[in-house]
Design brief:
rod-shaped, mainly alpha
Length: 114
C-alpha cells in the first residue's frame, strides 16, 4: 500500500508527461500512412496494443487507489475522486488505443502474424 501511495504522489508529474506523451505519440502515428507496407502496419498494431495495455494497467492502479482511499475515509475524499477521474481518463485512452490497433489490424491480410 505504501508503494501505491508513493507512486501516486510522486508520479503526478510523471503521469502528466506520460499522458502528454501518449496523446502526442498517438497523434503522430495517426497521421502516419503505412500504405501497403505490412511491416509498418504490423508495428502500428503492436505499438497501439502496448499503449493500451500500459494505460489499462495505470487505470487499474488508480481505480484501486480510489477504492482504497474511499474505504479508509469512509467517504469519497477529494484524492479518491481525483484518482477515480484519472482512472476513467486512462481507461478511455486505453480503449481508443485498442480501437486504433484493431483498425490497423484490419489492414493486414489474413494470416499475417504481428
Amino acid at each position: 500500500m505504501v508503494k501505491t501511495h508513493v507512486f501516486l504522489h510522486s508520479g503526478g508529474m510523471f503521469l502528466t508527461a506520460v499522458l502528454i506523451g501518449c496523446t502526442t505519440g498517438a497523434v503522430e502515428r495517426e497521421g502516419m500512412e503505412c500504405g501497403a507496407d505490412y511491416r509498418c502496419v504490423r508495428d502500428m498494431v503492436a505499438q497501439y496494443r502496448q499503449q493500451a495495455a500500459e494505460l489499462q494497467a495505470m487505470a487499474d492502479q488508480y481505480a484501486a487507489d480510489a477504492a482504497s482511499r474511499s474505504r479508509q475515509s469512509g467517504q469519497e475524499s477529494e484524492q479518491a475522486k481525483r484518482s477515480g477521474d484519472l482512472a476513467k481518463q486512462m481507461w478511455t485512452q486505453a480503449q481508443e488505443a485498442d480501437q486504433h490497433a484493431r483498425e490497423y489490424q484490419s489492414q493486414l491480410p489474413h494470416g499475417i502474424v504481428y
